[in-house]
């Protein structure tokens, strides 16, 4: 996989603030790559550096192997879909979409054909003469996309493009975007703070916090094997428990309960483990614990109904657990105050590196 | 409010909406709006619309041999006189001056307004106050100050002499009038431009740059068209008063360069020809009105 975009040791300082701190990253050709993190984590600054709106304070930024760290945006083979769409209000939809081609001095006939094709691609050919303000949010979003894609960029940069849309529209646009990316085969770099969005659309995700790139992985690995507390906590719900390593296969929680978990930590070391709420099963304390599964005994202190599932808060000597159980007849339900056994498979245990 | 509270307050009006009540409520609203606007309406009618009406009526009146205005023998003689070559010459000179003033104001103000609009909030406020400061002193006083600056005893001339050149006298020339007008009306151009640039969504410029436009092209294709309402408002605010300017030419201009303002005043005072003065005023008014409408239409079309 050749790299479409390659950052090595890129930092960005604004006066005293370090917005991006020594990031190295290679995004493959045709990849759907997401930069995920809370607001202020540096993801947008990273994107803006790739676009050319900000210049790195230090480091190398290559697009298709060419060094571009200090090149202005108009000399880069990338296009951006802005969070606010940034459609030109004084131009028609057609003029908006054709702007990049006009600037590149493509001949009129070709501009017309390509603009038409781009508008067809986003199913808005019938609004070619409309002004941006006459369009709905979803339509503006699609025009912004067409305006970028019509230039056939090497890389498409998207800055929270679905942030302004309501939930239903956002979900359908997620699918549309992913399908579009598969079809055109252009590398997408997608910035979002929405972990669900990143998980469903991306080939790989880079999680950022406080200017640092914490972990780059495919969605499944990222969700199931987060390496740090931040990543574990930011993506989905998580239970973090402290334990002491007894030997290479056993750990011990506060209160003396032991569990099997393979670790490379040395004996006697305190570690933090992470378990997803849905990885637990709940059983009555009168039931015999399932074979091969770790268990912790505790009391249900809260139950929240979510329609298709229940959230239980279970107090155990090892700490409070959040357990997600499906709402199905075959899954036993518990009341507040019930004594329960929370069980999980040893392989569902992830050790935190920090 | 909880439902029980609703029941416990029998004084509440419990009328159900009907088309008639809705109409009454709407009319009451309109009446209130009129009431609020009425003091300014009254003022405008008394001191603006009525005098304008008098001027309009006078423009059709006859001038007696002694210079009195006779409200009889209504005719179009005054309007016919507008085609006099002298009037044409004065009008052309005034138009040229107003156009030049507007163009210079625009060229000077745009970069300033752009600079202001792209500063931090604090710097903006300071710059804004600086632009407003000239308004704190009287316009006449400021114009007389230019007399000192532009005269043969003024600093410009003195510098020239100190450098071994001739004394420079700009005072009492068209250049002096132009300088005075540009100086006087600059804030009227800066402020609307600033207002339109300050609202500018700068991500549009980034979008332009992202779509391969150079900085200059992005300005020409995006910033300038979007700030057009400011350009139009500023131009109108400068062009119209300078077209009829009286004070500045009277103080800084020469005797040989009559402009529309002086000419109209002289018809009312020295020449004692009120009907012709009125017709002139109305002609200028009509031209400005038409020009304004055309200008607005051409600019407003794009936004």
Structure keywords:
heterodimer; A: 354 residues; alpha+beta; Rossmann fold; OB fold (Dihydrolipoamide Acetyltransferase, E2P); 2 domains; six-stranded mixed beta sheet; five-stranded antiparallel beta sheet; 20 strands; 36% strand; elongated; B: 303 residues; mainly alpha; MetI-like fold; two-stranded antiparallel sheet; 2 strands
CATH architecture of the largest domain in chain B, by name, is Orthogonal Bundle
Domains of chain B (count): 2
CATH architecture of the largest domain in chain A: 3-Layer(aba) Sandwich
- The number of E-state strands of chain A comes to 20
The SS-based structural class of chain A is alpha+beta
User: Helicity level of chain B, as a percent range?
Assistant: over 70%
Number of helices of chain B: 14
Low-confidence stretches of chain A: none
> What is the total tally of β strands of chain B?
2
- Strands of the largest sheet of chain A, in order across it? 6-7-8-3-9-10
CATH homologous superfamily designation of the largest domain in chain A = P-loop containing nucleotide triphosphate hydrolases
Into how many domains do the coordinates of chain A divide? 2
Q: From N to C, what is the helix and strand string of chain B?
A: HHEEHHHHHHHHHHHH
Average pLDDT number of chain A: 93
Q: Percentage of helical residues of chain A?
A: 10-25%
Shape, per Cα inertia axes of chain B: flat
**Average pLDDT of chain B, to the nearest integer?**
88
| CATH classification class of the largest domain in chain A | Alpha Beta
Radius of gyration of chain A: 25 Å
Give me the Rg of chain B, rounded: 27 Å
Give the oligomer, counting copies of the same chain as homo and different chains as hetero: heterodimer
